[in-house]
Amino acid sequence: MYEDKIRETERLIEQQNEWRSRCINLIASENVMSRRARAHAGSDFAHRYAEGHPGERYYRGTSFIDTIENTLKSNLKMLFECTHSEVRPISGTNANEAVFSRLINHNNPVMVNSTPGGGHISHHKIGSVGKFTKNIIDFPITADGYHIDVDKTKDLIHAVKPALIVFGKSLFLFPEPVRELADVCVENKANIVYDAAHVLGLIAGKQFQSPLEEGAHLVTASTHKTFFGSQRGLVLSNVDSAFWRKIDRGAFPGSSSNHHLNTLAQLAICTYEVMEFGQQYARDVIANAKALAEALDKQGFDVGAKEFGYTESHQVAVNVNKFNGGEEVSINLEMNDIVLNMNLLPHEPLRNATHPDGIRIGVQEMTRFGMGKQEMEKIAELMKECVIDKKNVKEEVNRFRSAFQDVKYSFDSQAGS
Question: Is 38-271 CATH 3.40.1190.10?
Answer without folding.
Answer: no
